[in-house]
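User: Sequence in, structure out. Go.
Assistant: Echoing your sequence, followed by the structure tokens.
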Amino acid sequence: MLGRAVPGAATGQSPVDWDREADVVVIGAGATGLPAAIVACEAGCSIILVEAEKDIGGQAIISGGNVPLGGGTSVQKKYGIADSPDLLFRDLTDWSVVGPNGFPDYRYNDREIIRAFADNSAATFEWLLTHGVEFVDKAPDAIGGNSVGNSVPREMHSIVGHWPMPATGSPADPAVPPDST
């Protein structure tokens, strides 16, 4: 039922009657909700995708297209960057690396969640590639990231294309080719 508006949604009012059902209900059409809906759809499920805003994308637009996935992605391998899920896990749980404020960046990370992230990071990147996300063809770097303690480059940059720039809301500069931003 993707694409059908629910009565009252635009005004914030609850519908009087709810007569819809689906195998999966996804709340939020952002960086987590959209992939969840895609996976459920590919598995043959019917889906209701609920989004509070008029546009999809959620808070992930703040990333500016910077995608910090590692653990041995195809792009890391292409550029000779040796990474693994274990190294990614160590980097994201390392208390010995301190920030300018004297505290370890990663002191609050939940180790079970970080373990799952590290074990699935490379596969997530490959999933994005197979689902049409385009990345600038260059080696991963640390541009766009603000954390320290990553022992290998992991930041990749999606191609801006014709999407608006997050800082301004204006379209990307047409003079800049989409594959070089």
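User: And one key feature?
Assistant: The longest strand covers residues 24-27.
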